Amino acid sequence: MRSPGRSWREHPQRYRLEAAKCTGCGRILYPPRVVCPDCGGREFETVTLPRKGTIVTYTVIDVPPTGFQGQAPLVLALVELENGVRTMVQVADVPDMDRLAVGMPVKLEFRRISEDGEAGLIFYGHKAVPA
User: Fold this and answer.
1) Which band of pLDDT confidence, cut at 50, 70 and 90, is reported for residue 119?
2) What is the mean pLDDT of residues 8-29?
3) Is 119 helix (H, G, I), strand (E, B) or coil?
4) Closest residue by Cα to residue 1 from 76, 70, 63, 67
């Protein structure tokens, strides 16, 4: 179960795909961090990530975890965005699993991800769909 507070703190990353760009070395960190792992810098500017990328690798989960049961088979992919940032996202709208492939171009769309129980929070975020 996720807390409403945690969900609220993740809004900029989940809803607007905001990342932090280190003002010292230029590395883009997603999700944002307090300290840059490359140069140790602590000053960042906010950047919005591109919505297009390609699948680096993926996996198909036939028995999804709690909260995702109605989404089987659940496809998760590591997507490299146009600026080189990589993110793990769910893949949607692929009716034929044989179409899934490493190198497949995708775009990120804002979608419903899951919900926390019948009366709980509804979580939104980005899913990758074929471009």
Assistant:
1) low
2) 79
3) coil
4) 67
Alpha-carbon distance of 124 to 69, in angstroms, equals: 17
- Determine the 3-state secondary structure of 6 from DSSP: helix
Sheet architecture: strand order including 18-22: 28-29, 18-22, 44-48
Phi (first) and psi of residue 32, to 5 degrees:
-60, 150
Tokens of 89: 């996202």
Give me the residues paired with residue 81 across strands. Answer: 53
Contact 47, 21 (CB under 8 A): yes
CA–CA separation, 35 and 55 (whole Å): 28
Q: Report the alpha-carbon distance of residue 88 to residue 79 in Å, rounded.
A: 6
Q: What is the pTM of this model?
A: 0.81
**pLDDT at 69 (0 to 100):** 75
Average pLDDT over the chain reads: 86
Comparing 111 with 103, the larger pLDDT belongs to 103
What pairs with residue 29 in β-bridges?
20
